[in-house]
Amino acid sequence: VSPALPLRIAVDAMGSDHGPSPLVLGALQALAELGPDLRLSLVGREDEIRAAMPGGRGSEQVEVVAASEVVSTEEAPTVALRRKKDSSIRRAAEMVAQGEADGVVSAGPTGAVTATMQVVLRPLSGVLRPSIAAVLPSPKGPTLLLDCGANVDCRPEWLLQFAVMGQVYGEVVMGKRSPRVALLSIGEEAGKGNELTRAVHALLQRADLTFIGNIDGRDVLAGRADVVVCDGFTGNAVLKLGESVPPLILDVLRSELEARPLSRLGLWLLRPALRRAFERLDWESYGGAPLLGVDGACIICHGRSGPKAIRNAIRVARDFVRGGVRERIAERLKGVA
Amino acid sequence: VSPALPLRIAVDAMGSDHGPSPLVLGALQALAELGPDLRLSLVGREDEIRAAMPGGRGSEQVEVVAASEVVSTEEAPTVALRRKKDSSIRRAAEMVAQGEADGVVSAGPTGAVTATMQVVLRPLSGVLRPSIAAVLPSPKGPTLLLDCGANVDCRPEWLLQFAVMGQVYGEVVMGKRSPRVALLSIGEEAGKGNELTRAVHALLQRADLTFIGNIDGRDVLAGRADVVVCDGFTGNAVLKLGESVPPLILDVLRSELEARPLSRLGLWLLRPALRRAFERLDWESYGGAPLLGVDGACIICHGRSGPKAIRNAIRVARDFVRGGVRERIAERLKGVA
User: Fold this and answer.
1) What ipTM goes with this model?
2) 8 A C-beta contact, residue B203 and residue B157
3) A186 interaction partners in chain B (CB closer than 8 Å)
4) Do A191 and A147 form a contact (C-beta atoms < 8 A)?
5) Which value, to the nearest 10 degrees, does the dihedral of the CA atoms of residues A267, A268, A270, A272 take?
6) Which of A9, A30, B218, B324 is 20 to 30 A away from residue A193, measured at CA?
7) In terms of CA atoms, which chain A residue is nearest residue B236?
8) pTM assigned to the model
9) pLDDT averaged over chain A?
10) Best interface-test mutation with B: which of A132, A198, A245 has the largest number of B CBs within 10 A?
């Protein structure tokens, strides 16, 4: 993609838990933020998408692309893929496959999005298994964790490729000069871990990476590494548990604070500091999970994403395309395989 | 153990990161709380233990048992076990094995404590693999997670036994009438997960347990299950990540609050509510991780435990012995194997 041409992102407008509204609003925010070189295609049911536009009007930079079906979280991804040939996810993926868009953003069910991209976009040449990576907040900046669920039973070579793909993403999108790569295990020594991690440790030590060794669960969010690799079962468990903790803490705090009148005054005084703290810890601000290793740019958002998360995901998709993540992964893997 | 006889707990006084002091103080607090039917043996270097006693004096209910060596977190557990025959961990375990104590509490390195108990106490008859269980706080009460690192590459039958052992612990120590047992996976459907969890799911469905099915990482701390089983690699990663989140949130909050003078007043007004909220979420208050499936009661505490955590662990060890967890596990597993 030449920087001179407008960049085209297909946005699956139907996937979110809250209907097209967060997608449509996020898309309009992205246009306002990212300037005139962006073109967005909102894919889905035209009437619902138009109804979600403020004043019913879009912008010259937005088109609506019709797709009649919606994939829900209740459906098995492979069944949805086979039966719903006109789903918004599939139509958005086809736009990329047919050269009508440069990348895709979806807040649809992760399994369905991943399966659709693997079938419609296909894995990049040389990629053994595409991988879902999550960008985790930490006080010292974002950390990329992969795989987060696309591959549950893994071979060591797959994790080596996850590390290489994560390295490229860390360089291009996260702006790290030489991203520190770590292996998630249960202790720092090379011999600590399970059969898989011991084999992967040996591969990573020989690879052309800034490999800092094993880290354990305690260090994932502490900012010790820029890229953390693990199998998708562990990654999924760790990611979901981590996401669950801040709301639990908030719930307990809220119930205690509401029981005491003076606490309300105190809370009011703390508001600016609290707002800033939660911005720093906000999982939404990092803008979605990149699917690495397919032949196209794909960013997957939470089903519950608000406009801000969608806007950020569109920005990330742009950086992904402009920075040539796909091409660099293919290039880098030639040296590994 | 007859309830009429005093209950004897051997406390490894040397294992903590902060020397014998938290162990000794916690032991004295436990005596004050738990009454006259308790006898404690503080195992380790006699001079250091005596120096940690307030006024240099103990109580009639406390004896000091000499052990000259200390196992550190830097040592490989198996090496420490082989070389340090007079370590405080080993001496405490031997007291149980030889009938001089009913249970043991240690804040030593988890790997070394586990290895020592497996060798000195031996697994219970019928137990395939002893397991470390962690008691996690949740807004709805504690949840037991096992295995947390004693067994990284697991067979399905081991996880079935973890579930049965967790069930017994849930009944006896956590006071649940029929503990809800869940399998940690990456989705609720039986088919979701990796090879291991799919096989375990089938075993758990046929077992005599209140099996509520798969849960994912999001649900572990939400109180949906009383007992959550998983392999020790996943459990360790999830446990350590979960423990790391509250301090990270506090760090970020603190740095933002200190930057603003009015925040200090606000914080002062919030103090009672915050204190109560953190008590509810405090990982220390649940008192250590039981090692289930060895022929004795063993509670493992964090190396950084304070007196309160030690006191709670001694209480848990007492409940473990008085409630006959060991005997019930042996009995229950006869019906499973």
Assistant:
1) 0.91
2) yes
3) 149, 152, 232-233, 236-237
4) no
5) 140
6) B218
7) A186
8) 0.92
9) 90
10) A245
